[in-house]
Amino acid sequence: MRLDNEIAVVTGAAGAIGAETCRLFAREGARVAALDLAEAGDGDLRLACDLGEDRSVAAAADAVRAELGEPTIVVHAAAATEFATTLASSSEAFRRIYDVNVGGAVRLVQAFAPAMAAVRRGAFTFVSSINGYFGAPGLAAYASSKGGLDALMRTLALELAPDGIRVNCIAPASIDTPMLRASFECQPDPAAACVRNVQRHPLGRLGTPADVAALLLFLSSREASWITGANVPVDGGASIARR
């Protein structure tokens, strides 16, 4: 199996993408620590963790080491969002979203990269978004945080490469999750909003959590051992035909 004898940490493990990733990694042989504010349904170790809090991440990292050992794979799929324009956004929401989406990645790297460096092997993969490099009216805080996450990834990839640690992002477009469905419900006609969204993707459908998990598996595996600093789209062609 592709992740035999690996220990993996997955954040956002109670969400659609995180849960699918936990299941797939387990099927491929990994022992999985599932982190989320809500209780995750899958994982060898399931931990409550607030990615926006130093002490919460530190406590979760200690628990992972004590129960499973030092991870060589970390997937940061946790994300906070707010459906608001820049003028309508609150400064509190901006801070919280940035602290979870970007600060959470920093906390994970600080917690787990030193042990990876000691064995000269490891992989961090952050779930970003195509909204990190396109304008996203109505998702001001979320989109700007994903742009920040992309920049952080590139810096970390350079900083950690000498220690044999790879850092990458993936950039999903519209993935059929409760978060996406909630955005449709904010529109006057949710069904029409869904149809319009599907039409933005040349492959003619929404993505699925399984589509995302498959890419996360590849980037976390040794098959991707010469890939670092990449932001890989999983978007049904949306980024080449933005409409």
From TrEMBL:
SUPFAM superfamilies given in the database record: NAD(P)-binding Rossmann-fold domains (SSF51735)
E.C. number(s) listed in UniProt: 1.1.1.-
Origin: domain of life: Bacteria
Residue span(s) of domain Ketoreductase: 6-173
Top-level enzyme category: oxidoreductase
Keyword Repeat: no
Keyword set, alphabetical order: NAD, Oxidoreductase
Entry's Gene Ontology molecular function annotations: oxidoreductase activity
Any coiled-coil regions, as ranges: none
Family: Belongs to the short-chain dehydrogenases/reductases (SDR) family.
Listed PANTHER family: DEHYDROGENASES, SHORT CHAIN (PTHR24321), ESTRADIOL 17-BETA-DEHYDROGENASE 8-RELATED (PTHR24321:SF8)
Name used for this protein in its record: SDR family NAD(P)-dependent oxidoreductase
Organism: Luteimonas salinilitoris
